[in-house]
Amino acid sequence: MKFTAEAQMALSRRNFLKTSGAIIVGFSAASQISSDAFAQGGPSPGAPAMGQVDSWIAIAADGSITAYSGKEELGQGISTAQQQLVAEELSVPFERVKLIYCDTALTPDQAHTSGSQSHPVNFNNSNLGQAGATAREALLQMASQKLGLPVDQLTAAKGVIQARNDASKKVTYGELVAGKKFNLPLSKTAKRKHPREWTVLGQPLQRPDMPLMATGTFEYVHNVKVPGMLHGRVVRPPVPGATVVNVDEASIKDLAGVEKIVVRKNFVGVVAQKQFQAVQAAAKLKVEWSKGTGMPDQAGFLETLRQAQPSRDILLVDSGDSAAKISGAATVVKASYIHPNQMHGSLGASCAVADVQGDKATIYSATQGVWYQRSACATLLGLKPENIHVMFRRGSGCYGLNGADAATYDAAILSQAAGKPVRVQLTRKDEMAWENYGHAHVMDERAGLDAQGNILAWEHEAWIPAKGNRPGAARPGNIVTGSLLGFEPDTFQPRTPAPAPNAYNNNSNGIPSYVAGRVKGMNQGTGTIASERVLVHNLQSPVFTGPLRSPARLQNTFAHESFMDELAAKVGADPVEFRLKHLKSERVIGVLEAAAKAAKWEKRVSPRANAKTGTVTGRGVAVVAYEGDNGYTGIVVEVNVNQQTGKIDVKRMWVAIDAGPISNPDGLKQQAEGGALQGMSRALGEEVTWDREKITSVDWRTYHSLPVGFEIPKIECVLVNQPDEEATGAGETSITVIGAAIGNAVFDATGARLRQIPFTPERVKAALNARG
Amino acid sequence: MSTINLKVNGQPHALDLDPATPLLYALTDEVGVGGPKFGCGLGQCGACTVIIKGQAVRSCVTTVKAAQGADIVTLEGLGTPGKPHPLQKAFMDENAAQCGFCLNGVILTAKALLDKNPKANEGEMQQALSNVLCRCFTHTRMLAAINTYAKSKAGAR
Ligand code: FES
Ligand code: FES
Fold first, then answer.
1. Are A445 and A336 in contact (CB under 8 A)?
2. Nearest CA residue ID for atom 4, ligand 2
3. Which residue of A107, A284, A592, A754 has the fewest C-beta atoms within 10 A of its own C-beta?
């Protein structure tokens, strides 16, 4: 099989435009340049202008359409939806559109592909979707001139514009293009197709990459080959904080094929002709390391965080009266919840290919941000950013900041030292011992209720250790390779006490769905509780951390939705009804009711009157407005709990999801299903572990992921279509609610409350023993 | 280094390799097939699976020496995008992938079991896949695709 990397290397944007043609139109549309990408920190110098149609769309003389996007396909299905979007706005069949994404020579800088942002950013009134609509209007204008008919007498379909009442009067997009550029700013007023008119969007199309993936012919970054490519492996320190004392190069002088030993500060790597030679060289190279900095005792570590200093404190909401309201309430409820560090643990250990030749570099990377990667590699390599070409190639599933960026830095450093292209394959342990783990959280919840069972006040306080983050353009030290090379991670800036909130921001879902969210005199939350306080303590972490699918939102929602269940039980209320009573957002209510309806929820108070022995069944519910307003999910789960062994079996799930107008129902469903199961694996078994020296969860025996062959729950999805709303995020919604829903179901079944993830059989048994 | 003779998807390959080289590296780097993937290198995830003598074998922990002479079938040996094997087709019809990195291990493990035991029940399929990972958790669809294929295979008999 031939992979196309070499061919793609030669491809430049100029070549592309030469072959694809373009358009000039004779009017200047009144327009406002899209500002969404700028708000995200982009675009980088030299990137295609966000406000120009030509940056997004090119139409070839044969009528074929190339679309350029800065949002990439990681496996979440967004490339299919984006291809549908362009086809829809341009009124052409799906197959007519070729989508190119995340290539610094070709595509706009849309910052990272992350955090359920692609759908809102490209499908609403800016960027890719708006470029498509602007182009369609421009084509209609040109056709109007050419055919001598007013625009309102023309229709566009399948790339042909024709008179409404005379099919003989027509012209194709290809004929209109005639080898010119659009030269047109994105129009804010170009009319978008309403979801009710959609013919391509809204369809459950097969993913175009599906036949390739199923036959082993899809090109992942792991499959990229360039001529003369060598193989690299890194030698990471044995324990965190260890520094290089000495590297004995002679220790591998007898090994065949070794081309280079690279030592830069604490970065050590080898380059060899064949992969197995690099593996052996990395294993045999004698490196003397200093002692590490040690790790805190993991037992009870999270409990110590409440006293940890220094801290950077943030108040998200503070009505000022919550403490007094709680202490004066008829019923006071307090509970603490714990979420550990977890891993991305992508199935394939990360890989990258770099070719650094003199002052130029070509890089194939599974990074979530090609433009950031370009800047960071420029710093690492001492090159000019404009001399670096970064091309995204899909890696193994990406749920946030896995090892993709680190592997890319590794490949770049090794290639520069070797003067030849180098492919780096991390080992499973390289990946698992050094990735930026999802954050641990310790969370305290407090609430006061009146005699009628209404919540009067709610306080949430969280302690969250962090170190490093996405490296972005300027912080290579935020991930392991940059750190080994001597770069510092983000600086920690202590701040206590926190200032009053100056804007409403529920990006982290730190604010529960049930409070008013009053900031600057305006209620912006989704609930009704007027007395509220959310205080976050950001702390320093012994391990690198970074965004992992639904960062902070998942942890906070685990606490909020478990606590809401505790409150309902305390006052003898039905968990669904009790939630509804404290909600005002129709979309949150909508998904909650949809999930409850699908599950045929029977009104009741938890726990059920089940036997205290044997296997018992229960159901739990949870709901979230992801990021406060960027996607809505309600879930009901049914579990069996074996009270003898403490094992939880999730039997069924009903997931209702609302992400605005449904761009691709099959894709949306898949995100809902996959998120729920991934969240279930994390809730039941996943936890990063360490001893006093080092990380000990370094493979699939020590980090526990549910395999393909387990008893998979039956999942029913309810897709709530909102044709009149804006597109929102989808990929991180169901994973955010599943942990609490399982915990609540266990409580419903047994009366035992689980407040620490993962819900291992030992923890379940401890909770069963502790119940009254 | 010595000459190693591998037969991959019916094609013979004479390769100059250290006999201790894991089969996976020979397949991806020398033979140039893209189906088998490096997942863990430890025999724990299934990403590198190939079929040898009807068995799903983990090529990351199998040496080229041990694989010499045998018929090695990789995912691309089953079918092509235009002419997929019915099991591959079932995966396509279900959109049974997110990143797709695990498909190699899942499809080949399921195929090896169903070739041996076309009437494999749910428990046997779970057992076969109990050491195969998909971290995107596309489980529901993958199992649906496998069931569709298993049924059609049983029906064809
Ligand atoms: S790569 Fe061989 S089993 Fe994981
Ligand atoms: S689809 Fe990504 S690992 Fe299975």
1. yes
2. B134
3. A284
Query: Are A452 and A414 in a shared domain?
Result: no
Atom of ligand 2 nearest to the CA of A346: 3
Q: Of A30-34, A451-455, B79-83, where does mean pLDDT reach its minimum?
A: A30-34
In this structure, are A277 and A370 located in the same domain? yes
Collapsing DSSP to helix, strand or coil, A375 comes out as helix
Give the CATH number of the domain where residue B68 resides. Answer: 3.10.20.30
Type and span of the H or E element at A762 = helix A761-770
pLDDT of residue A412: 98
Place of tokens 């502790």: A770
- Would you call A213 an interface residue with chain B, using a CB distance cutoff of 8 Å? yes
Query: Which long-range CB contacts under 8 A does A663-666 form with residues at least 24 apart?
Result: A663/A81, A663/A84, A663/A85, A663/A119, A663/A123, A663/A201, A663/A202, A663/A727, A664/A77, A664/A80, A664/A81, A664/A84, A664/A201, A664/A202, A664/A203, A664/A204, A664/A205, A665/A202, A665/A203, A665/A204, A665/A719, A666/A204, A666/A205, A666/B95
Q: Which tokens belong to A472?
A: 């972005």
Residue A1 pLDDT level (bands cut at 50, 70, 90): very low
Number of domains in chain B: 2
Residue A464 has pLDDT above 90, yes or no: yes
Does A345 contact B at CB distance below 8 Å? yes
Q: Please state the rounded mean pLDDT for residues A458-475.
A: 95
Query: Would you tell me how many other CB atoms lie within 10 Å of the CB of residue A166?
Result: 11
Check whether A313 has a pLDDT greater than 90: yes
Residue A180's pLDDT is 80
Q: Is B38 in the pocket of ligand 2 (CB under 6 A)?
A: no
Is A547 a pocket residue for ligand 2 (Cβ < 6 Å)?
A: no
Last residue of a domain, one of B47, B75, B103: B75
State whether the beta carbon of B134 lies less than 6 angstroms from ligand 1.
no
pTM: 0.93
Q: CA dihedral in degrees (A20, A24, A30, A33; nearest 10)?
A: 30
Q: Is residue B81 part of a domain?
A: no
The residues pairing with A447 across neighbouring beta strands, listed in sequence order, are: A333, A458
Contact: B39, A396; criterion CB under 8 Å: yes
Degrees to nearest 5, angle at CA A205 with A204 and A210: 125
User: What DSSP character marks residue A309?
Assistant: S
Q: Which ligand is nearest to the CA of A707?
A: 2
- Give the pLDDT confidence of A5-50 residue by residue, as tens digits: 333 333 333 333 333 333 322 222 222 222 233 334 457 888 888 8
- The pLDDT tens digits of the residues spanning A203-241 come to 999 899 999 999 999 999 999 999 999 999 999 999 999
Question: Which pLDDT score is estimated for A117?
Answer: 78
Q: Cα A733 to the chain's mean position, in Å?
A: 10
Q: Which of A1, A6, A76, A215 to mutate to test the interface with B (most CBs of B within 10 A)?
A: A215
What's the pLDDT band for A581 if we cut at 50, 70, 90?
Answer: very high
DSSP string of A677-691, one letter each residue: HHHHHHHHT----B-
Of B1, B32, B102, the CB nearest to A347: B102
For residue B66, count other CB atoms closer than 10 A to its CB.
14
Pairs of residues, one from chain A and one from chain B, whose beta carbons lie less than 8 Å apart? 210
Contact (CB, 8 A) for A218 and B34: yes
pLDDT at A21: 34
